[in-house]
């Protein structure tokens, strides 16, 4: 339970607050339009469809304001930097920005649907009133002319259009209607191209179609124009609807019932969205400025299995462990930015990324690098970042269990290197005395560079007589008969046949019960932090084991599971 | 952008359009709109488009992700053969289906969305894509080899017991002693 509150408490709180604001806005504006006196006559023509259209409109205003904010990654980084005082849990929330963006998008989609349906009904009822289908009051209200004093209530003025096409004609000839159709269409296209299937397979379609949001916001700014939603204005003398609603013939002829006057309000959405739009423009400008900064190549290394290591230098670049950057190479594609976790430690005077061959862009990059002459600088690169909350918690625990699965070991390269640097310089920030590292992968193909790193660390530790500092275990979960035979033949050699490391490769998945027991036994009175970068299923398993092997007695071993979002 | 199968996006767009047509139609009929017959048509057309587009096609490259419970729909759609396999047919079908929905405000959005889906399907058809059903792989039953059926009846030939006795004084050396000479 305590673990859940630490890992999920703040997120749940933020979601509850967000949902609460949504519900409040919906109910407030619903009642405003459903009970307000100045909308009595409007409601007579439209019924509750008026309130059903205006309430989601308010929720839409709020959410359209929010949706641009989570994608301003540079501004979020700035925020993160200035919150250093406010505790890591708060800053970790900023890592869930895309999830929040999606949640707000779902709400926008839902509210658009409600808003659209309510307005369809509204237009239909207005049309019917105009044609005299309803009672006398409705017809009288609809007949109010659009004079100099704009006293009309029913926005449908033309009657010489075919009755069935009148709603369509009205929608396509008003600013509100036309912008409404256009932005709903943009929204639908954005949503269909953002479906996970499309996003994971054809990122470009998703990315380029998503830019329709520009049309969405421009349309949204003008959507409220045209004074379509109208309320009763105070006249002198006042027109009391309770008194006058049944005396339609006497309107304008008796002093208690002058002709009622109606008016609409100006567009208000821009109040909500102008701030975030400006912030987003600043964000894009910032990304452009960062892109223009020169990035120098310090070293380009081609590792086996088509893994490219780039060691880069940029003025004023400061990173923390576990952060990631976006890389752009105009020679390959001017508009694509790809994220990579950094594999260098902050103590080094450069930053590095390891790029695997995993698609069009990376293949072309590796190809270009392979054809470079020795010692030459590579193609121009743009680097945006670093982003992500630093994984500093790793340094706080006396004993750490680090679990990396598959590609998830990448941030651990940075962490392990940093821990080793801090250990060598006896950095007081480092409280870690012992590290257990578990590396799970189907095959070591494409991760030989990581094995090399472990080899280097192993050697350095042996030299200093600190062989015990790091214990690592590699689990090959994708072994087959040939692996087994090979291992069996070479089993009495000192170094492992797969990785060349002193510690042997295990086959299959780790038996966590055994591992946790071993850690418990070797560290009888410590607090152990467990960190995972890998699939969520494994996270659940580890969480359970941490709970199982933690002793209530504070003098004995206690395990804390940290759900990291690398 | 060269590896995109446009049909995948067209499929998502068409499914969404079907739902929008359906919703617009229901609103038109339930609200007894003027021209509700067009709305009734939209319900039928929307439902038909949803049923047609629900089963995803198998991708030419990469793993195909099925929609939940799409197998029965796959079988139905497959049974129409070239009519459902060919994307030109789908493009024109969607274009034709969308036209009547344009005559009523409640369904006009569905009309435009379906029109867009039709255009994307046309692009897919021009690029030579076609619909493939995702069918479960049939398990290949491996029959055991014939030699497994007839185990040997007799024990292997052995030399007589005198030559088989081991040299107990030098066990290590005895390991290399073969009772029957090997080699030439």
Automatic annotation (TrEMBL), chain A:
Residues 287-393 form the FAD-binding FR-type domain. The chain crosses the membrane at residues 12-31, 51-72, 100-121, 169-193, 205-229, 269-289. It catalyses: NADPH + 2 O2 = 2 superoxide + NADP(+) + H(+). The keyword Repeat does not apply. It is a multi-pass membrane protein. It is found in: Membrane. GO terms for molecular function: metal ion binding; superoxide-generating NAD(P)H oxidase activity. GO terms for biological process: defense response; superoxide anion generation. Keywords: Heme, Iron, Membrane, Metal-binding, Oxidoreductase, Transmembrane, Transmembrane helix. Pfam families: FAD_binding_8, Ferric_reduct, NAD_binding_6. GO terms for cellular component: NADPH oxidase complex. This is FAD-binding FR-type domain-containing protein. It comes from Pogonophryne albipinna.
From TrEMBL, chain B:
Residues 161-170 have a biased composition (Basic and acidic residues). It is found in: Cell membrane. The chain crosses the membrane at residues 12-30, 36-54, 91-124. The keyword Iron applies. Residues 142-184 are annotated as: Disordered. Keywords: Cell membrane, Electron transport, Heme, Iron, Membrane, Metal-binding, NADP, Oxidoreductase, Transmembrane, Transmembrane helix, Transport. InterPro entries: Cyt_b558_asu. It holds the Pfam family Cytochrom_B558a. One of its GO terms (molecular function) is metal ion binding. One of its GO terms (cellular component) is NADPH oxidase complex. Subunit of NADPH oxidase complexes that is required for the NADPH oxidase activity that generates, in various cell types, superoxide from molecular oxygen utilizing NADPH as an electron donor. Subunit of the phagocyte NADPH oxidase complex that mediates the transfer of electrons from cytosolic NADPH to O2 to produce the superoxide anion (O2(-)). In the activated complex, electrons are first transferred from NADPH to flavin adenine dinucleotide (FAD) and subsequently transferred via two heme molecules to molecular oxygen, producing superoxide through an outer-sphere reaction. Belongs to the p22phox family. Component of the phagocyte NADPH oxidase core complex/cytochrome b558 complex, composed of CYBB (heavy chain (beta)) and CYBA (light chain (alpha)). Component of the phagocyte NADPH oxidase complex composed of an obligatory core heterodimer formed by the membrane proteins CYBA and CYBB and the cytosolic regulatory subunits NCF1/p47-phox, NCF2/p67-phox, NCF4/p40-phox and the small GTPase RAC1 or RAC2. Interacts with NCF1 (via SH3 domain). Interacts with SH3PXD2A. Interacts with DUOX1, DUOX2 and TPO. Interacts with NOX4; this interaction mediates superoxide generation. PANTHER family: CYTOCHROME B-245 LIGHT CHAIN. This is Cytochrome b-245 light chain. It comes from Pogonophryne albipinna.
